[in-house]
Amino acid sequence: EVQLVESGGGLVQPGGSLRLSCAASGFTFGGYDMSWVRQAPGKGPEWVSTINNDGTSTYYAESMKGRFTISRDNARNTLYLEMNNLKPEDAAVYYCMIDGMFGEGTQVTVSS
Q: Which residues of the chain have pLDDT under 70?
């Protein structure tokens, strides 16, 4: 059974940073591309970033480029998202995703 457990969210001031983690189990983690998506209140899901299976290629939505960094540790079956210079519009529930499956998400709130 695929399990994805996101963590690391919280309340941060504009301009602050957070590092999200996603602990994965139930599948061969290193064999799959992984993504982060987010959903803000009242809005649909928004793709954030994708990393290929061995971490050599990364992709970002335009508004996240230069601020967010996706990475993975295949030995620890963990996906990360480093978020810097956070803006109020980044507030959302963040989910890690594989093949359309999501975890419970972790809440990111950006407010002064």
A: none
**Interatomic CA distance for residues 67 and 59, integer angstroms:** 12
> Which is it for strands 106-110 and 10-12: parallel, antiparallel or unpaired?
parallel
**Residue 94 has what pLDDT?**
98
CB 6 within 8 A of CB 97: no
Residue 5, both tokens: 């457990």
| Alpha carbon distance, N-terminus to C-terminus of the chain | 40
Written as one string, the DSSP assignment of the chain is --EEEEE--EEE-TT--EEEEEEEESS-GGGS-EEEEEE-TTS--EEEEEE-TTSS-EEE-GGGTTTEEEEEETTTTEEEEEE-S--GGG-EEEEEEETTEE-S-EEEEE--
